[in-house]
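[Automated response] Your request has been received and processed.

Submitted sequence:
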Amino acid sequence: MKKEIRKLVFDKYDGRCAYCGVELDFKTFQVDHFKAQIWDKLEGKQPDGSLDNLMPACAECNRYKAEWNIEVVREWLEKSKKQLLKTQNLRILHRLGGFVISDEPIKFYFEK
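Generated structure:
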């Protein structure tokens, strides 16, 4: 990918991951396809490489999202919130205020 395009993607959310909001390093950030290229290929379309479909991402979010659409990822994360409280250590931390799980729905950085 051309450096000029990478710079535009990086600047889209002021150098932050579009998903979690962590500050990114220009040299190591990853460019994610919001709508994964595999879906366009399966539909017989050219992969969407437009700037609108390119998102700056940290490696962790990019790996987690993989080829899934954002609503599937949101659903997984919502389920994860409930699963976390099934472990004794996190339940205790939660009761002591050392681990807070919000009842608010998951919002990604690009939605704020």
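Summary generated for your ticket: Residues 70-84 form the longest helix (15 residues). Helices lie at 3-11, 37-42, 59-65, 70-84, 88-95.
If you did not submit this request, please reply to this message.
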